[in-house]
Specification:
With 224 residues, this protein is mostly helical. The protein has 2 domains: 52 residues; 139 residues, no CATH class. 67% of the residues lie in helices and 0% in strands. Helix 4 runs antiparallel to helix 8 and helix 4 packs across helix 10. InterPro entries: DUF6766. Keywords: Membrane, Transmembrane, Transmembrane helix.
C-alpha cells in the first residue's frame, strides 16, 4: 500500500482533493440554495434533492467543461506554438508533430512501446492523438450537460417569474448560458497563459513544472 501511494501520489492526492472540494461545494451550495428558497417563501430541499437538482449539476458542469477545454487547447496548441524560455513549451526547434524517431514510432518502437504505437495504420494515428481527443470529448459532454442543466434551472426561474420557458436552442443563444460559459473560459485562459510566462522567470525547486533553479531564463524545454 505504501508503495502504491508513493507511485500514485499525484493521482490519489488530487483525487481526494477533488472529492473533498466537490462534497464541500454540495453542502455549501445546498445552504445557499435553501437560504434563497426561504427568502422566496419556498420550502428548503434535502441534501440528496439538491445534488440531483439542475442547480447543482449546472454549477459542476460549467467548471468541468472549462477545465477540459483548457487541457484540450493547451495539448494541441503546444504541438505548433512555443514559448521561448518556458518549461511548459517544447524546444523552438521541434515545432510540429515531430519525427517518428522523436516520437518512437515505426522502426523506432521497442518491445515496451504501447501496442497501438507499434501496430501502425489508423490505430497508431488514433493513439497518437488520443489524449487530445479524450479531453475534447469530455469537454463537449460537460458542455452539453451544462446546457441541459442550465436550461432546466433557467426555465424554473422563468416560470417562477411568470415568464415563458425557452427551448434548448434558444437557451444556447441566451446571455445566461454564455455568461456561465465565458466567466469560466477567461479564468482558464488567464491561468494557463500566466503559468507559461511566469515559469520563464520564476522557479520552484524540485517541480517538473519548473526549470532547475540555476537554469538560464532562455532555456526552453528543461524541467527540474
Amino acid at each position: 500500500m505504501k508503495r502504491f501511494l508513493r507511485d500514485n501520489g499525484l493521482g490519489v492526492g488530487f483525487g481526494l482533493l477533488f472529492l473533498g472540494a466537490l462534497i464541500g461545494q454540495a453542502f455549501a451550495g445546498q445552504a445557499d440554495f435553501n437560504n434563497q428558497q426561504l427568502a422566496d417563501g419556498a420550502q428548503p430541499v434535502s441534501f440528496l434533492s439538491y445534488i440531483a437538482s439542475s442547480e447543482f449539476v449546472v454549477n459542476v458542469a460549467e467548471n468541468w467543461q472549462s477545465e477540459y477545454l483548457q487541457f484540450f487547447l493547451f495539448i494541441f496548441a503546444t504541438v505548433w506554438l512555443v514559448q521561448r524560455g518556458s518549461p511548459e513549451s517544447k524546444s523552438i526547434d521541434n515545432i510540429g508533430a515531430e519525427s517518428d524517431e522523436q516520437q518512437q514510432l515505426g522502426e523506432h518502437t521497442t518491445s515496451q512501446s504501447p501496442a497501438w504505437a507499434r501496430t501502425g495504420g489508423w490505430r497508431t494515428a488514433l493513439f497518437s492523438n488520443s489524449l487530445g481527443v479524450v479531453m475534447l470529448a469530455i469537454f463537449l459532454l460537460s458542455w452539453l450537460a451544462q446546457s441541459i442543466a442550465g436550461l432546466t434551472a433557467y426555465n424554473a426561474e422563468q416560470l417562477a417569474q411568470y415568464e415563458d420557458p425557452v427551448a434548448w436552442l434558444a437557451y444556447l443563444g441566451s446571455a445566461d448560458f454564455w455568461n456561465r460559459t465565458l466567466q469560466n473560459w477567461q479564468s482558464e485562459f488567464l491561468a494557463i497563459g500566466s503559468m507559461v510566462v511566469l515559469s520563464i522567470y520564476l522557479r520552484q525547486r524540485g517541480s517538473p513544472e519548473s526549470k532547475p533553479v540555476g537554469e538560464p531564463h532562455v532555456t526552453t524545454d528543461k524541467t527540474g
